[in-house]
Amino acid sequence: MSVDNLLALLGIVMASAWTPGPNNMMLAASGVNYGLRATTPHIFGVFLGFGFMIFAISLGLGRVFIQYPILHEILRWGGAVMLIWVAWKIATAKRPGEAGAATKPFTFIQAAAFQWINPKAWIMCISISAQFLNPENPVASAATIAGVSMLGGATSATGWAWFGMLLARWLHTTARLRTFNWSMAAIILVGVLVVLFGGL
């Protein structure tokens, strides 16, 4: 991959990774509710899981969904249902230590698996792969795409979780925490509606 293409890829990945989406909202909420250290497995699950996903799609998995559009629809609606459930869990999360509160954030496996039902992740994977994969050298170019994507994902995942941790100091009252959690859930729901009905 040329230097110009590599820089273009880096710019697109960074812009895409840092914009609000399900992963970033969940990481911010986890940072608020559990802190940065406890959110670390979630962070690693996001960027390593996404890196594996974009590598696999770059090598041809995306063609399966083009050939069988029903699989894309199943993924789209299944992912929407999962995201609505995640939004509800965030919105109704209790302060750690309260009766009925969740005791831990996403694990590495949960966060990595979530990438496969995350509509934003699919859109990024397919669009980036289509632009930057070199068919003459697919393995090397897929590895480059995955590596750059993991770099962008690592910085954004850590940044959003850290931002959430800093917000926790301000969100020390139950009312503020509840408002924050409902706001994060609302952003996820808006994203779901855009994906389902926005022509994406």
Structure description:
With 200 residues, the protein is mainly α. It has one domain (3-197). The protein is 81% helix and 0% strand. The protein has eight helices and no strands. It has helices spanning 3-18, 22-34, 36-67, 69-91, 108-114, 119-132, 138-170, 174-197.
Task: Break the fold down into its secondary structure elements and pairings.
Elements: H1 3-18, H2 22-34, H3 36-67, H4 69-91, H5 108-114, H6 119-132, H7 138-170, H8 174-197
Radius of gyration: 17 Å
The count of helical stretches stands at 8
Kindly report the average pLDDT value: 80
Low-confidence region ranges: none
Number of strands: 0
Structural class: mainly alpha
- The end-to-end distance, rounded to whole angstroms, is 28 Å
Question: What percentage of amino acids are in beta strands?
Answer: under 5%
Give the topology string: H per helix, E per strand: HHHHHHHH
Number of domains: 1
What spatial form do the alpha-carbon principal axes imply?
Answer: globular
Sheet with the most strands, sense and barrel status: none
Helix content: over 70%
Keyword list:
200 residues; 8 helices
Gist of the model:
The chain is mainly α. The chain is built from 8 helices and no strands.
